[in-house]
Amino acid sequence: MSFWDHLKPSTLPPAAAHLEVTPDGSVLRLTWDDGVRTSVSARTLRLQCPCAACVDEWTHQRTLDPAAVSAQVALADVQPAGNYALHIHFSDGHTTGIFNWKTLRELSERFPHQA
Ligand SMILES: [Zn+2]
Fold this sequence. Notes:
With 115 residues, the protein is α+β, with helices and mostly antiparallel strands. The protein has a single domain (3-110), classed as NE0471 N-terminal domain-like, CATH 3.30.2020.30. It has helices at residues 3-7, 42-47, 101-110, and strands spanning 16-21, 27-32, 37-41, 75-81, 85-90, 97-100. The longest helix has 10 residues, at 101-110. The protein is globular.
């Protein structure tokens, strides 16, 4: 249970109504169905990738070394995964990251991209 669950115990997590990737792939901009707009950098998403290659499935320890992630990492492709998540392909060849709306909202509020 996360901080945000605790803060808003009875509301459904917001979903993104609109998304946009900057032309250079460095930033994901999200407009949420509750009207909030957030931005998050590709590098933040890469560093916080929740996939099994980046986080140990059993211990939930992050196994990804931040020093191994290029400062220039970009979003190569962003595809919907059902209606609950985005499947993000990064320019460093990492393609297994699936970010659900809750994760995207949390990351973009915790690590907002300063445009
Ligand atoms: Zn990953």
